[in-house]
Design a protein that fits this description.
about 270 residues; 2 domains; 10 helices
C-alpha cells in the first residue's frame, strides 16, 4: 500500500500509522495531494485490512473515563492534564475522520473530500495542542486517557448512517457544548495560548459537526427516514450517551441542527 495512489487506500494507510506526528503530517500531505489532483478515488472499492486499527502509540495508557483524574487548574500539571485530554480527543478525531473515508464505500465524492478536510483540521488541532503541551513540560502520552470516542466509532462500523448520527452529531457535538467553559477555565488560569487554540478548535468543530449533519440528512433522505425519529432509534440501538446541558445552542445552530432537533435535545 506504500505506493498507493488511491485516496481511500491512503486514508487507511495513515489510519494504521502509530506515530502521532507522522500521522498528522501524512494527513496534511494527503489533502495537499488530493487538492493537486494527483490521486484517484474509487468510491466503490470495498477495502479491508488485517492490521489493527487505529494505529496508536504505546502511550497514553487507556483507562475508563472515571480513571482520568482531574487536577487543580492553578498548577502547571493540572493544566497539562486538561490539555493532554484535549490532545487525545484530537488524536482520536484524526482517526475517526480517516476511518469514515476508507470504511464506507458508495458515497458521493464530496463525502470523502469533506472527511479529508476534517482529518486535516483535526491533525492541525492535535499539533497545536501537543506543541503547547511541550511548553508546559509534558508530552502526549504522559497521562492516562479514555477511549470513549473511538469506542463509538467501533460500534458504528457497520452502517454509515449510524456513524454520521452518533459520532459527529453526538460525540463531537458534545465538544461544542463543553469548549466555551474549558476555554474560560484556561484563560482564568492565565493560559491565554491554550484559550486561543480552543478558539480555533471551536470554529473548526462547528464545521465538522455540520459535515456530519449534512451527510446524516443526505442518508435519511436517501433511505426515506424521518431524521429526528431515526436519530432517537439509533441512539437507543447503539447505546449513545445521553445529552446533558448546558448546550451551546448558537454553535449547534451554526452546525446545522434544526430548531426541532434543539427542542428535542433540551427536553
Amino acid at each position: 500500500m506504500r505506493g498507493a495512489t488511491d485516496f481511500r487506500e491512503l486514508a487507511l494507510l495513515w489510519l494504521i500509522e502509530p506515530t502521532p506526528a507522522i500521522k498528522a503530517e501524512g494527513v496534511k500531505r494527503l489533502r495537499e495531494s488530493w487538492q493537486k489532483g494527483v490521486l484517484q478515488l474509487d468510491v466503490q472499492a470495498a477495502l479491508t485490512t488485517t492490521i489493527e486499527i487505529p494505529g496508536r502509540p504505546e502511550r497514553p495508557d487507556l483507562v475508563p473515563p472515571l480513571g482520568v483524574k482531574r487536577r487543580a487548574m492553578n498548577t502547571v500539571e493540572g493544566r497539562a492534564v486538561l490539555i493532554h485530554a484535549l490532545t487525545h480527543i484530537e488524536f482520536n478525531a484524526i482517526n475517526l475522520a480517516l476511518d469514515a473515508i476508507w470504511r464506507f464505500a458508495d458515497m458521493p465524492e464530496q463525502y470523502y473530500v469533506d472527511w479529508l478536510q476534517v482529518a486535516q483540521e483535526e491533525a492541525y488541532h492535535f499539533t497545536l495542542l501537543s506543541e503547547h503541551l511541550l511548553t508546559l513540560g509534558f508530552e502526549y502520552g504522559d497521562f492516562p486517557a479514555h477511549n470513549s470516542l473511538w469506542e463509538m466509532v467501533e460500534r458504528t462500523q457497520g452502517d454509515v448512517l449510524a456513524r454520521m448520527a452518533l459520532v459527529p452529531r453526538t460525540m463531537e457535538a458534545r465538544g461544542l457544548d463543553a469548549t466555551p467553559a474549558i476555554r474560560a477555565k484556561l484563560a482564568q488560569a492565565g493560559d491565554q495560548a491554550a484559550a486561543e487554540i480552543l478558539d480555533i478548535i471551536l470554529r473548526d468543530e462547528i464545521g465538522h459537526v455540520g459535515i456530519g449533519n449534512h451527510w446524516f440528512a443526505h442518508l435519511c433522505n436517501q433511505r426515506k427516514l424521518e431524521p429526528i425519529v431515526c436519530y432517537a432509534e439509533l441512539a437507543l440501538q447503539y447505546k449513545a450517551p445521553k445529552m446533558r446541558g448546558p448546550f451551546n445552542l448558537d454553535a449547534r445552530r451554526a452546525a446545522g441542527f434544526s430548531e426541532d432537533e434543539l427542542r428535542v435535545l433540551q427536553s
